UniProtKB/TrEMBL annotation:
Pfam families: GDPD (PF03009). Keywords: Hydrolase, Lipid metabolism, Membrane, Transmembrane, Transmembrane helix. SUPFAM superfamilies: PLC-like phosphodiesterases. It comes from Branchiostoma floridae (Florida lancelet). It catalyses: N-hexadecanoyl-1-(9Z-octadecenoyl)-sn-glycero-3-phosphoethanolamine + H2O = N-hexadecanoylethanolamine + 1-(9Z-octadecenoyl)-sn-glycero-3-phosphate + H(+); N-(5Z,8Z,11Z,14Z-eicosatetraenoyl)-1-(9Z-octadecenoyl)-sn-glycero-3-phosphoethanolamine + H2O = N-(5Z,8Z,11Z,14Z-eicosatetraenoyl)-ethanolamine + 1-(9Z-octadecenoyl)-sn-glycero-3-phosphate + H(+); 1-O-hexadecyl-sn-glycero-3-phosphocholine + H2O = 1-O-hexadecyl-sn-glycero-3-phosphate + choline + H(+); N,1-di-(9Z-octadecenoyl)-sn-glycero-3-phosphoethanolamine + H2O = N-(9Z-octadecenoyl) ethanolamine + 1-(9Z-octadecenoyl)-sn-glycero-3-phosphate + H(+). It is found in: Membrane. This is GP-PDE domain-containing protein.
């Protein structure tokens, strides 16, 4: 989103034009049951309107601001005064516009209707081989897997913790895994330039511990051999790109 307004068809098209291999997006459910592409349910940050998507009909959603803050960018908020596409889009719109592009969907809420509709859309557009679905919430992952066992999943936060425990206990090779992708933050970005003066020392120490445990070449290689790809985020500078791929990541998620 450092090169365009987040979660718009125009910005997704720009990313595809630049050669991206996968689009990462988040979904919410509007008041009238539309699966909307948006990181936030409360959209004051992106629109200035103090409303929720879940309380608003899709047709009534306001346009996006032309200026937005990029959380993981080492810079001031970015501005796109000439942006022509300022509208929220539907997940259906993304599927129709990019039928051959791999799309990673993060379901933000444990909402049965949202979960069901995402699965239905994946099936409607025959995208089971081109879509990865998941959530930080294990309850969401379980429901997706129960309803649509053929849709690839990424690890929830709880499952990432379990993965690390299994790995360091030596049990991981003997445990079946339902997930197809490991998508985690690269903790080293927490003590980088962006948060050097804002993150308390105790959290930087915690990030270093997590980085030591999770950013393991052996773990990533083991997962890769089992057909589980690792993607790291949010990677926005050359040093982090180099480190991510040196660890064995198959890809990265970036604002550029």
């Amino acid at each position: 989103m450092a090169e365009g307004l987040e979660n718009t068809i125009g910005t997704f098209q720009h990313a595809v034009d630049l050669g991206t291999d996968m689009l990462e997006l988040d979904v919410q459910l509007s008041q009238d049951g539309i699966v909307v592409v948006s990181h936030d349910n409360e959209i004051k940050r992106t629109t200035g309107a103090d409303i929720k998507i879940s309380d608003t009909k899709f047709a009534d959603l306001p346009p996006l601001h032309t200026h937005q803050e990029v959380t993981f960018l080492n810079a001031l908020p970015v501005c796109f005064p000439d942006a022509t596409d300022r509208s929220f889009c539907r997940l259906r719109d993304v599927f129709e516009k990019f039928p051959a592009v791999v799309i990673n969907i993060d379901i933000k809420n444990d909402d049965d209707e949202l979960i069901a509709k995402v699965g239905e859309l994946v099936r409607e557009y025959n995208r089971e081989d081109l879509t990865v679905v998941g959530s930080r919430l294990e309850s969401v992952i379980r429901k997706v897997h129960q309803q649509h066992p053929d849709i690839p999943l990424f690890f929830s936060a709880k499952r990432v913790v379990q993965l690390v425990l299994l790995f360091y206990s030596g049990l991981l090779p003997f445990i079946p895994l339902k997930e197809s992708c490991l998508e985690v933050v690269m903790p080293s970005i927490v003590w980088g330039e962006r948060w050097a003066d804002t993150v308390p020392t105790k959290y930087k120490v915690l990030a270093r511990v997590v980085d030591f445990l999770l950013m393991s070449k052996v773990l990533i290689r083991h997962l890769d051999r089992r057909g589980i790809h690792t993607y790291l985020w949010v990677i926005n500078n050359d040093a982090d790109f180099e480190r991510a791929f040196s660890l064995g990541a198959k890809g990265v998620m970036t604002d550029y």
